[in-house]
Amino acid sequence: MKNKETSPNVFNLTITEAIKLLQKKDIKAAMSVISNAITLNMHAPEPQNLLGILCEIQGDDNTARKHYRAAYALDPSYKAACRNLERLVAFEWEPQNREYYYGDETEENDIFAEIAINN
Fold first, then answer.
1. Dist. CA 52–CA 46, nearest whole Å
2. Which of 21, 58, 59, 60 has the lowest tally of Cβ within 10 angstroms?
3. Domains of the chain from N-terminus onward
4. CB 98 within 8 A of CB 78
């Protein structure tokens, strides 16, 4: 449940902090910040997506898939979770590219710019 005293800005700052920690591979600190994000808004897909990334970094792909599915269940239009789940379940003979989709805005803008260039 969303805390009535919490502004969306606090939640977004918490998610941004968690992304930075995950990119640095600071697992313990990232877990703490992600847990805080869940308490701020348990119905948001972003913390579940980030938990999936955290699990992947730790080598636990099965649990990562569960978190990506949870993020998808919370918001089927949340592209980062969809892309992470698709990447993780795709069957490939070659080693997988572990390019994580954190859901930050710059990533989305880059993808849309690439689509516009290719069309």
1. 10
2. 59
3. 8-118 (1.25.40.10)
4. no
Q: Quick check: 30 and 68 in contact, CB under 8 A? A: no
Burial class (CB in 10 A: 0-12, 13-18, 19+), 66: middle
User: Could you tell me the pTM of the whole model?
Assistant: 0.75
The structure tokens listed for 103 are 């859901």
Dump the DSSP string for 65-79: HHHHHHHHHH-TT-H
- In order along the chain (119 residues), what is the average pLDDT of each group of 10 residues? 65 96 96 97 97 96 96 96 90 65 66 46
Q: Which two tokens stand for residue 101?
A: 């989709």
Question: Cα dihedral sign for 4, 8, 14, 19?
Answer: positive
For residue 51 the two structure tokens come to 């938990």
